Amino acid sequence: MIKPLIISILYIAAINVSMAKSNLFTYKGPESKEDQRFIYMQKVLELALNKTKSEYGDFELQATTEGINQGRLLLQMDKNVYSNYFFRVSVTDELLENYHVIKFPIDRGISGYRVAFTNSQRKKNYCLIKNKEGISKAIIAQGIGWLDTDILKHNGLNVYAIANYKSIFEMLSLDRVDLFFRGINEIKAEYEIERVTYPNLVIEPCIALYYPLPRFFVTDKQNINNANRIEKGLKIAFEDGSFIMLWEEYFRDSIELVNLQSRTLIKLDNPYIQNLDSNFEKYNYPLPEKLVVLSLLR
């Protein structure tokens, strides 16, 4: 009698452990204590999970350890380092082939509009530029392993790749690089944090880049049930308006700050997404008509 009882207890314990793992979701943590870029991603993931609690049950969220950069994310996923690992990526055809991609644009498509940090001594150097040739001699800082780095290089721009995100601001402040392009949704929060340490950091006022840069959550290909849960929760949140409210809370002020319509918009090609259907674009932020016309002309 004792042996069957022990087996039953062990079986129940194994089930509980399995259920606990299935309800534990991991997101990418910050690369430093000051790094605020991933708070929104955590909030979006939490929102999607909350919207599906009645169907899928409770959940827990945990962050990856501090200091992990983009280049190590996929390695961790391949090795199953974390349970139910979901992180945001700028999607490529390669990612679409090798991972489970949730085709919902969590930034509503605005990350493809890029404005630059620069050193205050260089602030007025770019206001006469009308095309990408005008910035081809500028040294543009970007991160190692970022898709943006590959896109800018593909378009013939002079890119200096840096391993550490925080070091880019230091290089800019020391005038060792000229520009550091960021999404119009990101730049305000980063500016408010980094100008404390680097008071000569400014937002360049005259130019903007645009290239298609859809950003989705990805997970491993076997994690289908949890991926379906996240996708369903995102769509519910979009339909009931709670996703848009969250997006507005984090990004509206930054979009207004950069005054995109007053800038020269330089269009670049993104050759890394040829096989992505456009159905996700219905969730994108609708741009003002004037800006759409300008982007088509340039």
From TrEMBL:
<protein>
    <recommendedName>
        <fullName>Solute-binding protein family 3/N-terminal domain-containing protein</fullName>
    </recommendedName>
</protein>
